[in-house]
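<derive_structure_tokens>
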Amino acid sequence: MRLSFNNTETAFAYKTNKELQAGRFLFGTMNYSWFAAIGVRLTPFLMKTGLPIHGAIRKTIFKQFVGGETLGQTAKVAKKLGGYNVQVILDYGVEAKQGEENFDKARDEFIRVIEYAATQPNIPLISVKITGIARFGLLKTLNSAPRLRSGVHDHEAEDAEWDRVRERMYDICEKAAEKNIGVLIDAEESWIQDPIDRLSVEMMEIFNREKCIVYNTIQLYRHDRMNFLKMYHNIARQRGFILGVKIVRGAYMEKERTRAAQKGYPSPIQQDKSFTDGDFNSAVEYCIDNIEDIATVIATHNEYSNLHAAELLDQKRIPHDHPHIHFSQLYGMSDNITFNLAKAGYSVSKYLPFGPIRDVIPYLMRRAQENSSINGQTSRELLLIKSELKRRARVAKEVKSKKTSLVGS
């Protein structure tokens, strides 16, 4: 294959020298895990004190990983990405606020984002977190007692509450189907995931008849998820709908292991990273083998997994822009993957969160933690940025030398 993720000229064509230098500083700071750990704990506290640190955050970590505070600001970033054939997955990055009124407001906000996405040429998908429209405790109760929905219990209030959650999700998916925008349902902790999975199947059965509108997220760092994917696929075939899945490695590993140890149940997490990698790549292969009835978003920063998927498409002579295959990386990370895939004609997007700085701080802190904890991730980002800055300096020097020669002659 001609596809390479080492082409930094393509990867950073959309960034100025000043932006690259800011990225070099940020990732250089994150490269010190102790510094990142202090920042993760200290920043939310400083925000609450009212100290004037918004400006520093806006110019550094916020600018790197977030599209903007409003849809209007985010539109400029989306348009810029679109100029390089990179699509966008919009995510309203505000953390969940409890209460039925807040859940209704979150539903309305998701619908507003869908309506906005439908007016843009390169925003085919939005992201939805069920804990944004449902009480965590309700999901936990339903997860531990899945028969609650069959009526074998005395919790009528919870039945009514769950019906309201279903109605909110239906409203979101109905608008998405009307506007032809895909909805990615985020995965969450294993102890609330079961009702999310069941709700996603319910929505897919309604809205994924002709094309894929609803996608559920499968975290392959769980050792049961490969079998779950196959079971999910069988259900879709039996009921006659297109299965939509976003496949990721996962986001709650330490929390999952700690809780399992504290409560004395077997950890749902794979033995080690090699098992996660193996299942992730197996899931990619399974989905591509069944591309006619599984629509897949391959969401990973792992270079091998992206190359493997791209190679499989070529081997099977599947068009790079097939409607049932899509690649995605987080905004601010792995530009070498995203932009080189886009240049090669693959359908690829940046996951682009937006929202007020104060509200997206939890998201930003997760990004800082992720970059400092993933082995080699920050170093890789830093190496690529430095490489591109050196390339540009070399090119500028060559151009200057040629101009001098022309003047001299």
